[in-house]
């Protein structure tokens, strides 16, 4: 039996067909036609599923179920997308709609949650069942897995590490809060802080750079640029302490770091790890694994397939 | 059937006999003879148990089990007290020893954990199964209950909210870390900060106070003393933000605040709640209950009795 995994993003829809051992039989992606309305997106998912089945050489009857990762908040029980700004969806009954189209049982969850499930199943977290995952990109996403299951908490939105307050009088966040980790350590924050320092006329390799991106700042820091190093170290410090504080509360067996910023490697990870270890200090009985995500942008569809597989596993159908 | 609950503190041993509905049949306490060695403490627990049974008018055969709350870290599976500095115990096999003495199945857990179980069963948390509890006293203790069970995390020590870093360059904590919440918002911290401000010669109602205690500072703040208000508001701010950050990660259904400092009432709770609400901001779908602990120093033995009861409940014996 096979499982369809869909990573429904605001920019692209990624999908794959995966077997119960995690082997990928087919994978593909299309640009999301979010502006054409929900029906257009449903049709895109249907077409992608057909294309993937053709590539994999399987029939619809060989698919046991599907999972979909959503860029927003999801009511998992009701199969409802509560709010997905990138898709312009609000209270959209995706489960009901897409089950009719695909003629399969479909399971939904937030994209950060399915990515963490993917890493646990086939990526960096394979040896662990209690995982804190942070995704450092344009924003900061996070997911907590306890005993192999996504921890959603009472509000149902899971862990929101990106909105933990690390500077109570810090910059205003899009969420309406002040000093959220996301405003001080995301790719967006790194660019913002570098621009502010450059605006003060400080010398830097970044001085004449147009359309500055976080990867430019990280690259300059790697070359020893003082301004860039300062910005990157500050972000890394916030990340290290916030992760250590999360460990004090959640007690995961491993921390996984994903997202574009993390791919920059040691220039960010070294100071992050230093602050993380300092903050845990003597409480750390043995060094807590701080792992880099391994599945890249496949984590979403692999985890979405696992979301479906795990339902059938629990019901002892597979 | 009845259950024996013991709250084994460094200063006193409190105990009670409780029925399965939570009714207290007998309660009592004795000063802990920690300096006389572990055998003396075991004998004290045995004597207290006998005294409580006599008061309750029950025989040993009517006790189904016992629970003990420990002021330190406990290996719950092994029944081992790993480290309890107040008792001078390290790797002490308490479960094995005390089961021989009491001739009962005995269950151990950390004192903050059993107090939270007590509040969930018979106190402020009766309507909730997902609870974050903080105890603000000489130090800061905490416990997390998820789905009605203590969340211990992978390291096994549960949630350590008192050692979350809220000022990375803050004061040195006894744990070896810097800027732990405990160093900035416990009773000890409040006294320390008030003394420092008084040392600067600032006018205050506390000026001529000898042997300053946290309750004096809280009382002066209640009377509008500027220095005291400043100290209390600062501590309350750290507590409010730390609790909100914990909510972002854990998603409890309620927060319970216990300990001597919390009993001071609105002078601390009002600014704490303000900062808590601000930090949660728009993420709070509906106001999260911030409740005062209700069982006082009975929470420990009541929760310890529940620890034992819940074992038999799970095994469907009661």
Describe this structure in words.
The structure is a homodimer of 318-residue chains. Chain A starts with a strand and ends with a helix. With 318 residues, the first copy, chain A, is an alpha/beta fold. Chain A contains nine helices and 13 strands. In chain A, helix 1 (38-56) crosses helix 2 (94-102) and helix 5 packs antiparallel against helix 7 (226-250). In chain A, a hairpin with a 4-residue loop joins strand 2 and strand 3. In chain A, the strands form three sheets. Chain A has a five-stranded mixed sheet. Chain A has a five-stranded mixed sheet with strand order 11-10-9-12-13, sandwiched between helices. Chain A has helices at 38-56, 94-102, 111-122, 181-185, 187-199, 214-222, 226-250, 266-280, 299-314, and strands spanning 2-8, 12-19, 24-31, 63-70, 73-75, 80-84, 89-92, 106-110, 131-136, 140-146, 149-150, 254-258, 290-292. The A-B interface holds A 130, 144, 146, 151-161, 163-165, 168, 175-178, 237, 241, 244-246, 248-253, 275, 278-279, 281-285 and B 130, 144, 146, 151-161, 163-165, 168, 175-178, 237, 241, 244-246, 248-253, 275, 278-279, 281-285.
Mean pLDDT of chain A: 94
Percent strand of chain A equals 15-25%
| H-E order of chain A | EEEHEEEEHEHEEEHHHHEHEH
Q: Whole-number radius of gyration of chain A?
A: 20 Å
Let me know the largest β-sheet of chain A: 5 strands, mixed
Give the strand order of the largest sheet of chain A, numbering strands 1, 2, ... along the chain: 3-2-1-4-8
* SS-derived structural category of chain A: alpha/beta
Poorly predicted regions of chain A: none
Q: For the terminal residues of chain A, how far apart are their CA atoms?
A: 8 Å
Most extensive interface: A-B, 41 and 41 residues
Number of strands of chain A: 13
Oligomeric state of the chains present here: homodimer
Judging from the principal axes of the Cα atoms, what is the shape of chain A? globular
List the total number of helices of chain A.
9
Fraction of residues of chain A in helices? 25-40%
